Amino acid sequence: MNYQHQYTDGTHIHFPLGKVVCIGRNYAEHAAELNNPVPTEPLLFIKPGSCVVPAEGGFKIPEGRGSVHYETEIAVLLGKPLSNQPSEEEVRDAISGFAPALDLTLRDVQAKLKEKGLPWEIAKSFDGACVLSPFVPASQFPDLADIPVRLTLNGEVRQDGNSGLMLNAIVPMIQHMAAQFSLQAGDVVLTGTPVGVGPLESGDELVIELPGTTRVETRVL
């Protein structure tokens, strides 16, 4: 595994990298920009831990597999296991940190899979499909309904969202996930992407941030 969880101060987190649990179409404007209906219940999918790479130092995208889209998201790191029907207090206690992340998507591949009513894994789980930044301790985010997230691409702000715009708020979202399958320490939750997704090209320069707490410069190698 070429990724190890760490905090923004450089200290490492002493539990293994787990799975990445994602929620689709969690911002209404993003669903609209891709001509997707807004789900009536949380739309979940999973990326394997093997697809995670660090944002620092740059990252690669697949070649010859069609358009690769960025989706900037608030990532939540879990430091304790959750299962069945955890309470709000249990979920808050299990949250270890927050970070900006990129959920990369093979958009052309995904579109073909959706046309056939097939799962998205091939489009979402390739090596390098989850680009993670170091985590900020959860204690720095007293209001989970007001966490900003932003992507700047080649000097232009492309995505500028906030957890307050989510259709499924962070704690109820994680409660729902834990009711479907067990979550473990080291798992990461990607909470959905705001409007403004688009394609990446080799050489693109990106800044992903949770404004006011963490800012990471990276690039497509």
UniProtKB/TrEMBL annotation:
The Fumarylacetoacetase-like C-terminal domain, residue ranges: 19-220
SUPFAM superfamilies: FAH
GO molecular function: hydrolase activity
Alphabetical list of NCBIfam families matching this protein: PRK10691.1
Family (UniProt): Belongs to the hydratase/decarboxylase family.
Organism (species): Pseudomonas quercus
Keyword NADP: no
Protein name, UniProt field: Fumarylacetoacetate hydrolase family protein
Keyword terms, alphabetized: Hydrolase, Metal-binding
Coiled-coil residue windows: none
